[in-house]
Amino acid sequence: MNNVYNESILVCVYYGRNGERLIKRGCAIANMMKSPLYILTIDPKPFDELDAEKIFYIEQWKEYANSHPTAQFIMKDNESRPVSKVIAEAARENNITQIILGQTAHSRWEQLTKGSIINSLVREIPFVDLHIVSVSRYIQDEEGIYDKGIRAYLIKDGEHYKLSFNHDKQTEYEGIFFKEADTDFDNGIFRLMKDAATIHVLVIDGIVTELKNVDIHTAMGLDDSVE
């Protein structure tokens, strides 16, 4: 594959299902630009001390890298340095021009390092493009039950709330609506912030009867305990 645009893509992944989505985004960009792709994960623990769940994700990421003609997986374990330092080092070593971070991983790493990764990376490698990919517009939905989330609003309507796709003065909540696939009705899940917490509520025919958090697996019919 000829690197037509002289670009190199680095995808930074943290444990969780959103890593797959970030890698697919990186693959799409790398394919479009015919550029090499690097997948990086960082852990403060040595590899042989990682639990089974973390190793599962790492093996998946390796498979994704192997399936792409120019991808390479990079594991930085037993790392005590700030995450931004490790990312910057990997970027320099591999002549990276674009870095992709997920919003959740970005926030999690900031918690671990007690600082802004974005600001640190801008200082460390100022000539690299940073892409922060929002994961709030997606829910775990391997079965394809829900469409990609779109911005929507809840308007108080008597004892219930009415779904709207336009913001006005009567709007009480702003969030993301995940519509059920293959239906003409506004049925699905609405994600919003309430009392400083993220919750998911059911939407049936464009109406939310109560702001009660629902379990996503149950809402998708994936709870094995339910007959």
UniProtKB/TrEMBL annotation:
Gene Ontology CC terms, in alphabetical order: plasma membrane
UniProt KW Protein biosynthesis keyword: no
SUPFAM superfamilies for the chain: Adenine nucleotide alpha hydrolases-like (SSF52402)
GO MF term list: phosphorelay sensor kinase activity
UspA domain sequence ranges: 8-126
Source organism, top-level taxon: Bacteria
A Pfam family: Usp
Keyword terms of this UniProt record: Kinase, Transferase
Keyword Transferase carried by entry: yes
InterPro entries linked: Histidine_kinase_KdpD, Rossmann-like_a/b/a_fold, UspA
Protein name per Swiss-Prot or TrEMBL: Histidine kinase
Species this protein is from: Paenibacillus anaericanus
